[in-house]
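Quick one before lunch.
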Amino acid sequence: MTMRSRPVRGVVMSRYLFPATTLMVAFLFAGCSEQEAVPQAAAAVAETTVASSTFPAPNTAVPPSKADPDRVLAHLKVLAGDIGTRVAGTDGERRAAEYIATTLRAAGYTVVMEPFTFDLRYDLSAIRFTDGSLKALALTGSPEAEARGTPVMAGMGRPEDFSLRDVRGKVVVVDRGVVPFGQKAANAQGAGAVALIVVNNEDGAFRGTLGDVKVSIPAVGVERAERARLVDLAQAGGTLIVAAAAGSKQTPSQNVVGRNGEKCEAYLGAHFDSVPEGPGANDNASGIAMILELARTNRRPGLCVIAFGAEEYGLWGSQAFVKQHPMAGVRFLLNFDMVGKITDAQIVGEPALQEKVLGLLKQAGKTGFRAGQFPPFASSDHASFVSAGVPAVTFHSGDDPLIHDPRDSTANVERASIETMLAAGDLAIDGLMTAR
Ligand SMILES: [Zn+2]
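Model of the zinc ion complex:
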């Protein structure tokens, strides 16, 4: 699940941190997988884009008939346990893609890695003290710059706040409110300050903008909780460094697409990247593990499988996919996002398909599902397909307080939930592929 426009605190804030620290995580567990029903990820497989005309005829060998929750859990263990954090654009994500490709090939699919790039926004802004540092967020429009100086408290940053004190060569600290951020920054620079820190006037982090105002000094915002520390340092006459470092970077990711024959009339989907905070077991190794098993037992001509990259940074993989492929005539996408911990099982997405799927589940006596809706700030990959005119829904086991948290590990996924969601997915595929 991706979080889009929630106020900058916790979850969303992490989306702006460039996940450099996660780069090495993937290798830590390499080679220490125990004996499993599902093999450990194979060594890197060189992938090339295959023109659609080269797809072999559909594999018509009869697939195994029964979906096995143990296999789902074994995939989950490789993805969220052995590989771990799978941030888009990092080696963890790439290793997960390779594991998915290997697994789909073993199930009889023709697999293509489809690369794309996405715009990774990062913010490594900080305030550094002699004895540590604290996280700051650059005000939008601030130059990437660093400055050292003694902090001076300067009220709200109005012109009269500066007329009372000499801030030349100093770091101005002002409170949020009354004056626009751009004006605070222009006033501070005009008075000779080397940097601006704006302290929030409510709890949490915030990202202000300088608007049309251009300044050459770094300008950042910090949480209200840090105010006392800045006041103390101002009184003591100590120094600090303000570093504004925010921007965006074109970053490579990939979708993994499994086809059985040349044509895709319908899709199973799930995203395989995680947030930087942790291994994303429920969000969304669970969904990937599930579609791998559903793909194995539901290999049918025309039913294709997509593992989406870079979902957490804003549905980049599914957006790339619907741009790269003709979507006219595609019958449906069944997407799976957070299916490992039932708190409120639901089908989210396009109303007609939602109703059809719920009808199929009800017919089979599965009444524990409802038509759901994500909160306005959250979404998943079905949304990209719906925007492209394809009926699409996401299977979702409900809110999870450990979403985007380091504790979303394999222990956060419950076998009973996997069993229920797997059976539901199976029923929906069968019903939809049979009904024409
Ligand atoms: Zn998520």
